[in-house]
Design a protein that fits this description.
Blueprint lengths: L1 E2 L2 E2 L21 E2 L20 H26 L13 H8 L7 E3 L5 H7 L3 H9 L22 E2 L8 H14 L6 E6 L6 H13 L3 E7 L2 E2 L2 E2 L19 E6 L3 H18 L3 E6 L18 H8 L3 H12 L4 H24 L18 H16 L12
Parallel strand pairs: 3-10, 4-5, 4-6, 6-7, 7-11, 10-11
Antiparallel strand pairs: 1-2, 8-9
Helix pairs in contact: 1-2, 1-3, 1-9, 1-10, 2-3, 2-7, 4-10, 5-6
């Protein structure tokens, strides 16, 4: 019968669906490269990953690992205040980034620096941002690792979980109205999927037919909260059909599988004007951030086992099997990445900070009265209390 809420069949049987009443097998996890780095022979590969793209993906992974290692050490040395690595999740970020175009609009969480790096953000840009110097696009008004680039269609990262998801839906709907052959892409962790913004975004996207690709990094841990304490359903992908949305679970440690999953999700989203949900199963092999010690809530053996499944090494072995990479190239790439990262840090640290007045600029073409008053109050306070302003920030 056609009810206002939907057309449904009748049944004389009293049967509950889901939960303990009719348990279902978990959604399978799509994979094209096995744990040893060898191709899965029968795997569906609708989007062939060519040599040039594959090598660029791997080189970006190497650079990202180097950035994470050295920037983490720099934070520990007190050179800047905060950092987060993407250890164990490099394939999810870079595999998906390679399947997008620069016309696609990215709304990221805080562990997708590999996406913006692949799109053209330089290591020097990353260093400027972490130091918050005058060359950084946000002019020091964001926490470290909160990257953004208008030129690269990468919206500035927000610390607040899931706020980017409704924004991504709105951007996708605008792309559809403008008849653009592009989509928006929203990244988030499985912990963020517990926020209300996640559910609102999913429902709006499905109802409006917004071409948005939701990419969930399910790394098993929302800081110190394990997935077993976060949900009882079939992960995050299992929620897609409930919202009338196509969903796929992919091995987040398999860069080729993530590339194909994202490329196909993007095709469906644009051609059919629908949202698609992709859940990348992975593991955060590093600490949540430099403010975290994950050994307090995870077993050392668990972390050791997962670090041995490094997705970068796995993709490297596949490249070698294709005859596209060798040990000499690898050594050269890692040495060059180390030189580039160290030089970027040294350059960024020497650059001057933005002036104090930068706190009040860049938002309005003409400063409104309330900001002008606040700026005057700040300068009066600093004049009366010189120690209130860090010595390296020009008072002007």
């Amino acid at each position: 019968m056609d009810f206002p809420g939907g057309s449904v069949p009748f049944t004389p049987t009293l049967t509950f669906v889901g939960g303990t009443f009719s348990p279902r097998a978990p959604l399978p996890c799509y994979r094209t490269i096995d744990a040893a780095g060898h191709a899965v022979g029968e795997a569906d590969v609708p989007h062939v990953l060519g040599q040039d793209t594959a090598v660029r993906m791997y080189q970006t992974m190497v650079k990202l690992q180097t950035v994470d290692t050295i920037f983490y050490e720099a934070q520990r040395q007190g050179r800047f205040s905060f950092y987060m690595t993407s250890s164990g999740e490099e394939a999810t970020a870079i595999g998906s980034a390679a399947a997008l175009t620069n016309d696609d609009v990215v709304f990221s969480q805080y562990r997708e620096q590999g996406v913006i790096l692949y799109r053209g953000f330089s290591v020097q840009d990353m260093a400027h941002q972490c130091f918050g110097n005058m060359h950084e696009q946000g002019r020091g008004r964001q926490m470290p690792i909160h990257y953004g680039s208008k030129a690269l269609n990468f919206h500035t990262i927000s610390s607040t979980l899931a706020t980017q998801l409704p924004h991504a839906v709105g951007a996708a709907y605008a792309l559809r109205l403008d008849k653009k052959q592009a989509c928006s892409v929203a990244y988030f962790g499985e912990g963020a999927a517990s926020e209300g913004d996640f559910h609102a975004a999913m429902n709006f996207a499905a109802t409006l037919g917004a071409p948005v690709v939701f990419i969930c990094r399910n790394n098993g841990w929302a800081i110190s909260t394990p997935a077993t304490d976060q949900y009882r359903g079939d992960g995050i992908a299992g929620r897609g059909p409930g919202y009338g949305m196509a969903a796929l679970r992919v091995d987040g440690g398999d860069a080729r599988a993530v590339f194909n999953a994202t490329a196909e999700a993007r095709r469906i989203a644009i051609e059919e004007h629908v949202p698609v949900l992709v859940e990348a199963m992975s593991y955060r092999s590093g600490h949540h951030s430099t403010s975290d010690d994950s050994s307090r809530y995870r077993a050392a053996e668990e972390m050791r086992q997962w670090r041995a499944r490094d997705p970068v090494t796995r993709f490297q072995r596949w490249l070698i099997d294709q005859g596209w990479w060798d040990d000499a190239q690898d050594t050269a790439a890692r040495q060059e990445a180390r030189r580039e990262v160290i030089q970027a840090l040294e350059t960024a640290q020497k650059a001057p900070k933005p002036p104090l007045s930068a706190m009040f600029s860049d938002v309005y073409a003409e400063m409104p009265w309330h900001l002008a008053r606040q700026q005057a109050e700040v300068f009066a306070h600093v004049t009366a209390h010189p120690d209130a302003c860090p010595a390296d920030i020009p008072v002007k």
